[in-house]
Amino acid sequence: MKIEITRGENLRFYQITDLHFYPAKEMKACGKEWEKRAAYDQKCIAESEAIIDSTIDFLLADKEIDILLVSGDNVCDGERAGHYALQKKLRRLTDADKKVFLITGTHDLHPEPKGYSEEKGEYIAEGCTRQELIEIYGEFGYNDAIAVHPDTFSYVAKLDEHTRLFVLNDDGIGFEDGFHGYFDDELNWIKEQLEEGKTSGDTMLVMGHHPLLAPSPFYAFYCKDQMLGNCEEIAELFADYGVRFMFTGHTHMQNINYFDTPKGNRIYDINTASLIAYPSPIRRMELTEKTLKVETLHISHIDYDLKGMSYMTYSREHFDYILKDILYSAAHDIDRFCEISESFSLPKEKAKKLAVPIQILGKILDTLTFKKAGTLLCCKNKIAPRMYNVRLADFIIELVRNMYAGDEPYAPGTAEYDSFMAIYHRVAPLLHKILGSDEIDKVMEGVLYDAGLPDNDAVLPVPARA
Fold first, then answer.
1. Which among 40, 27, 11 has a CA at the least distance from the CA of 324?
2. Nearest residue to 252 (alpha-carbon basis) of 31, 14, 459, 43
3. Cα dihedral sign, 141-144-149-151
4. Cα-Cα-Cα-Cα dihedral of 448, 368, 435, 410, to 10°?
5. How far apart are CA 292 and CA 297, in angstroms?
6. Is the pLDDT at 328 greater than 70, yes or no?
7. Residue ranges of E strands in 114-265
8. Residue 269: phi, psi to the nearest 5?
9. Could you tell me how far CA 228 lies from the centroid of its own chain?
């Protein structure tokens, strides 16, 4: 028999994800390979410890909210030293009576943990097994769960008297591209737990690592193997059982999206970007009977030499530095482009397959302003005058940054959208021929403008059950 329960006080909690903590001090990271890794990783790896410490200070300063969700990829590449050091950092929260609910991600069981030294360069360091991860992180939700699936480190926990959090590991085949989702045994367990939650009348929330829904057309086009496996089937399953909100990471992008089932039930995916990469978000959320309020916050300073900048400015400069190198390499060194493209979620093999159109686009972007491109492509009359002297390469960097930060602003009718698409439409037939599809059109439109929900700050209505 289903029991209906009315929520009392509002449920408030934080979410952070993709900490990718690298214990540089413990592992004595140094040498040219370490400097290269720190400079050319999209994430602020060298600064990760300072970022996490400042974030924990921020969470401790909030005396009202005592719940934190951590949705996977907790360390950089599975380093054992990182797991144990992060455990100690998270204990600062639980020692202050905060409740931490944590899940692991594919990076936490990486097959090749990384170490760096002058003598060895980059070398394979010591990692952990699944069972060891349960022992390290079990105190953060798993040990006090009302139900567990020990083979996968999935569990169900109570956030308050009337709310169940499904913490679901979706490692699938592991670190490599491919299926990241729930195999039959775990899926059957999930269905049993959903049935129990539905019967109890509890509010049911889900936390996982891989995105339930694509954060942008770009991600759906280039990174399908990085989505939650069988994502539409799982979204339908969750929504029709009464789950209204899922909290995810992995993409390093800020996005809020929703899925409607054939039965008329809706589920939202609140996908959050990496804590240690621009825009370094901290999600603060408040759930009532009628709404989920989502706010995005940021730390401003960390204990690290930021060259006089605020942390947000520093992390943005780091982000842009790599993008500039990627665009230069696309035009002048495609092999290098393929090596560093993974920093922005484009796998090396896919980059190689797209090498020809990437090189063409790279050369176009490298030297051209909007005015020059419009003249060359016979569409200058469609370029807004205030866009004439804007370099295409600089504009592309802004578009990618917007995609990661969320709330892509350039709607049809703006000078930015109309001018860029005028140029794009002149080269699109060639791209269609090379790719054998016009799907790239939706990708380009989506990078300019997200017509959906706000990605950073939103008030989402709790959907009624159909």
1. 40
2. 43
3. positive
4. 10
5. 16
6. yes
7. 114-117, 121-124, 147-149, 154-160, 163-167, 203-207, 245-248, 255-260
8. -110, 110
9. 12
Q: Once rounded to an integer, what is the mean pLDDT over residues 90-106?
A: 97
How sure is the predictor about 225, in pLDDT bands with cuts at 50, 70 and 90? Answer: confident
CB atoms within 10 A of CB 392: 22
Would the pLDDT of 7 be above 50? Answer: no
Closest CA to 17 of 357, 388, 269, 305: 269
pLDDT, tens digit, 9 for 90 and up, residues 253-304: 999 999 999 999 999 999 999 999 999 999 999 999 999 999 999 999 999 9
Q: Hey, which bits of 72-182 come out as E strands? A: 99-103, 114-117, 121-124, 147-149, 154-160, 163-167
Mean pLDDT (the chain, rounded): 93
Instruction: State the number of CA atoms in the 13 A half-sphere of 405 facing the CB.
Output: 20
Residues forming a β-bridge with 121: 117
Burial degree of 315 (CB within 10 A; 0-12, 13-18, 19+):
buried
> Is the preceding omega at residue 111 within 30 degrees of 0, hence cis?
no
Let me know: does 328 contact 358? Beta carbons within 8 Å. Answer: no
> Strand pairing partners for 258?
268
Alpha helices in 260-412 (DSSP H): 311-332, 334-340, 348-353, 355-367, 370-376, 392-405
Predicted structure pTM score: 0.92
271 within 8 A of 251, measured Cβ to Cβ: yes
Most confident segment among 154-168, 175-189, 422-436, 440-454: 154-168
Tell me the Cα Rg of the chain. 23
